[in-house]
Amino acid sequence: MTTSAVVVAMPGNEPLADELAARLGLERGVATVRRFPDEESYVRIESPVSGRGTLIVCTLDRPDDKLVPLFLLAAALREAGAQSVGLVAPYLAYMRQDRRFQPGETISAHHVGAWISRSADWLVTVDPHLHRITDLSQVFSIPSRAVHAAGSVAEWIGAHVHDPLLIGPDEESAQWVGAVAEHAHAPFVVLRKTRRGDRDVEVSLPDVERWRSHTPVLVDDIVSTAHTMIETVGHLRQAGLAAPVCVAVHAVFARAAFEDLRAAGAGEIVSCDTIRHPSNRISLAPAIAASVRTLLPARGHQTRPMQSGSSNP
Fold first, then answer.
1. Which of 78, 135, 206, 221 is deepest in the core (most CB within 10 A)?
2. Do residues 6 and 49 lie in contact, with contact meaning Cβ atoms separated by under 8 Å?
3. Do 133 and 155 lie in a common domain?
4. Coil, strand or helix: which one is 215?
5. What is the domain range of residue 17?
6. What is the phi-psi region of residue 292: left when phi exceeds 0, alpha when psi lies from -120 to 50, beta otherwise?
7. Do 79 and 50 belong to one domain?
8. pLDDT at position 182 over 90
9. Do 105 and 211 have their domain in common?
10. Which residue has the higher pLDDT, 191 or 156?
């Protein structure tokens, strides 16, 4: 690993960029990213990067406003002579659009993955939504690492929740919630979900009578509209359980989702810091830094890192 690599932050990503630079002994670079009055993007690299490894920190929630300036920033780094350009995107957008559901649709995950692969030499992300796509290498042609938040989430639960019962809101969450439960040495159950539309979700609750003395902890990787969690909170409260702690890895919280979840009777709402939000309590910077360390080029060498994989701290 070289200590001369440069970390550049897209707007709003400065705290993570600062922490990665400090943990890895890297230089914090300066870049200007702004909009012209006509809403086109302007970027400028203000730090010397010629012959040096670089990495851009840019989480990709609300991605459509970020992708064009991100690609221009990667291009500016290359034009300034950067040895390599990596991307740290704690939240990776478009991964849920992984199949053609209706005739005429495009599979957005593949296209966005191809665009990123043309702009960056490597990628680090956190718990991407892999369902029908089972590995990042099916989407990205560059080396990539998926950092898993389960250990960090379990550590927070163990330190802050008494007698937790982990609850997955749907079948898709089973594997992930099971991993958190294993790390936390706690029991877990998984609910069954029937989705009739984007905002019409019914959740069935298994018998949790024997867990009545435990604190329910709802865990999900992405909370966007929060409707699944809200429905689940309602079932748990109707069953006489305590107000559940709600934990999200990626706190998308579209529109008024956060306020709606609180109003539904949730207890504490906690998230990892992959997307900046007032609910952030769980830092993933140490785990992200560990994965970045494996991908930074050695000083003076153009070798490409190993192909895709996962990192589970």
1. 221
2. yes
3. no
4. strand
5. 6-148+285-311
6. alpha
7. yes
8. yes
9. no
10. 156
Query: Residue 164 class from Cβ within 10 Å (0-12 exposed, 13-18 middle, 19+ buried)?
Result: buried
In a domain, 1, yes or no: no
d(CA 201, CA 226): 10
Q: What is the pLDDT of residues 20-62, one digit of tens each?
A: 999 999 999 999 999 999 999 999 999 999 999 999 999 999 9
Tokens at 148, concatenated: 């898993």
In this structure, the number of other CB atoms found within 10 A of the CB of residue 38 comes to 5
DSSP secondary-structure letter at 138? G
Residues 6+ apart with CB under 8 A from 301: none
Average pLDDT, the chain: 90
Residue type at 11 in one-letter notation: P
What pTM did the predictor assign?
A: 0.89
Under DSSP, the state recorded for 313 is -
Backbone φ, ψ for residue 188 (5° rounding)? -150, 155
122-to-117, 141, 178 alpha-carbon distances in Å: 8, 9, 29
Which positions ≥6 away from 142 have C-beta within 8 Å?
116, 117, 120, 121, 122, 123
Helix axes of 174-184 and 150-160: crossing angle, nearest 10 degrees: 50
Asked if 154 and 258 sit in the same domain, the reply is yes
Spatial contact of 177 and 166, defined as CB atoms under 8 Å apart: yes
